[in-house]
Amino acid sequence: MPVLGSVAYPGQGTTPVSSIEYRDSGVILDLQPQVRGKAIELAVKQEISNFSATTTGVNNTPTLTKRAIDTTLVANDGETVILGGLVEEKDTDVDSGPSFFPDFLRSKSKAKNKIEILLVLNVKLVGNSNI
Question: May I ask which residue range the UniProt record assigns to the signal sequence (predicted)?
């Protein structure tokens, strides 16, 4: 996603020069396995990020929201591991009633949502079975 990197002012009375940076967003998963006998040591880096529109950023640029875990685990061949911890809580405004009704005939409320992402890994040794 292209985002504003920096703004330089080359001189008085000149137009500012903006630079654009590209940032990854979405679900980013990095797994680094190490075989240790019949076990596998696995370095796990997981990131979930997205851009939100804000009015407080420079030149109304979007703000990057990021949740990440970085851990190392050891599992035996064929085991399943579940990792959690990427939790997001969101407050949202909820409008009820037909949109063509006046405001005094509609109801407004707030809802609190909690979202947790679980990563399920099934560890398998592939290749030489004489380990």
Answer: none
